[in-house]
Amino acid sequence: MVLNNISEYASDENWHELKCILKRLYSDFIVIEIPSDGNVLEPKFNDNICSEEVDEEEKEEQGNVDIVTLPKELECLNEQISKFSQILEGEINECIVNLKEFNKDVRKQLYGFIKNNYGSALMTDCKDGILTVKKSKGNASDTRKRKFWPSARGDYLHFTITKENMDTNTCIDLIASRLNLKPSLFSVSGSKDRRAITVQRVCAYRVNKQRLCRQHFRHLWLSDFVYSKIKLELGDAYGNHFSIILRDVDNNFNSEEFNNRIEKWKTNGFLNYFGSQRFGSCGVQTSEIGRLILNQKWEEAVKALLAPRSDAPERINKCLKHFNDSGNAKQALQLLNDRSAIIERSLLLFLSKYPNGYKGALLALPRNSRTMYIHAYQSAVFNHIVSKRKRIFGLKYLPGDLDIEGKILNDENLNKIENVCLPLPSFENKLPENEVGEWYKEIAKEDGIDYESFKKIERHFGLGNVYRPFIQKPQNVSWQLLNYSFRDEQLQNCEFIPKNEVNEIQKEKIKEENEENIKKAIKLKFNLSSGTYATIGLK
Hints:
- 34% of the residues lie in helices and 18% in strands.
- By secondary structure, the protein is of the alpha+beta class.
- Strands 1, 2, 6, 7, 8, 9, 10, 15 and 16 form a 9-stranded mixed beta sheet that branches. Strands 3-5-4 form a 3-stranded antiparallel beta sheet.
- It is globular.
- It starts with 20 loop residues before the first strand and ends with a helix.
């Protein structure tokens, strides 16, 4: 099996290792998305302030709904009834209405009012003349709002999320859960690092901006809301801007030598390996799980995913060990009390109903999760090919090389290494018409895979065809040397986090440090194309 082979460098210079610390603080690694227009996102907070009054857009939205007027007999209940909308927004959990003084006919009118104005979004329960109104489970209210969406307004609400120490999917799940929406209504152009502060655009289908900009989260900020007729799709972003702090640099740091490194880095670029984020973490390499799936060894793949592992908490390993020893998924599931174990729970839940349904258990995983294993295998093959090509041919163009669209590079003006792309193995992708293309076939044979294997699982895994540049070059590179004295001194702020929420280091603590113990850090800023790993570039 091909391993994640990252062993070569674009430059043949024999640079000594630059010792430093990366990501001591989340703020040491700031990533800001560059949308398709090529301009780095800028902070905009004005739209994040919501008026108490209904804006013109909401009035327009209400104008499309057949609102039923409150009967005169119930006008005395205006105060309680006005709280119904607060229930829908999640501001309150329930509303109590005393109907003891009203006869049966008047009560019917109130039920009719609720049904006609709120549909199945609200649920009611009346006991001894006391009516309790709550939000229904599901998202009926949002379905109704989207159904009557103003025609002049774009279907998609675009907004910026700034997150700290959270992955992108977790953020989407959190926002969707708060609004009682399905995560599938949200889309992004790509995922961002978890252990960092990252900024990116998100779009949501037919969600009113008033609902979103009222929300407050920990370590997550929303801003710059704009309606659009265009959906944000995976891969739409041009790239990312990075601002990175490298701490505890040697006091004998040579600025001239480092600047030479930077110039070489800008000129030669770096080998465009997939980073470790692409491979996730489980008991065995995720790329090995991908190989098993491609070989349709469903049982082996599932059992590998459910094997005890050294990096898992004891509470999860207890469950996995029980399944590994007994094969009883139902009993193992009862031992699983960790909500974060989404993969394990999904597999065991399916197997508890269908003990031999290994293929079904894998296909029951969320699409992003099950696709990750095939992507990991593709990425491992790509990394292996990159290393072997650099080791044998260096940074040379070879006749038969492919471009970003999978076409052979024939134009003499384009026959340069920076235009060479390598395919991720799949059924649809074309292979280079040279020795490199033969390497793909050799790996597939070694792993017991033919390219028909990709075709058989395409429908369930959506692999597509991707050609990835062999070399990447950073753009707009700049750097500066910083001095600091406090170990966890914050050396950069993210402008997308409101100033009143920035966790500033107490200056008194800094003063307590010995002034002679000055430390050095490098602040490095650069842009990279979408899908390129900054950590690989730094290496």
